Amino acid sequence: MPAHKDYPQILWMLIEQRDEPAARAFFEKAIGSSGIPDKVTMDKSGANKAGIDTINLHLTLLFILDGVFTQVAVRQIKYLNNMVEQDHRGIKTITKYTLGFKSFQSAEATIAGIELHRMLKKGQMKNTGKTPAWKQFCQLAA
């Protein structure tokens, strides 16, 4: 997830466990929707580093088979979490009045809707044109 103000947030994923298989699944989903990045910036999480190392191992095996070398550079920043938390402050403000979620699925659906609305409001969705954020949100919900 980019934490630079000039780059859009590409993808987020709410997971129950934070381990290597979950991180790998996140990166595979991100690569499937956005392509292989040149560089990934992350916090000092060991699970995320292990996930991207597994992706790089798979890319190395593809290089041996196909001859096209591609690796994802990793940049780890200790305090990246502070910038991510600032970005998610709006979501936390909205969800603190929900008194918790009864299931993981309801939390995932609610947070996905809130995040979609925030991305529309920030203009991070492609081909938005001059359509206001509320109208785009209603069109996606229909």
From TrEMBL:
Going by the entry's taxonomy, the superkingdom of the source organism is recorded as Bacteria
Please state every residue range assigned to the domain named DDE: 10-124
Per the UniProt entry, the signal peptide is none
- Entries under InterPro entries matching the protein: DDE_dom, IS_Transposase
Q: Which PANTHER family match?
A: BLL1675 PROTEIN (PTHR35528:SF3)
Name of the protein in question: Transposase
Q: Which organism is it from?
A: Legionella israelensis
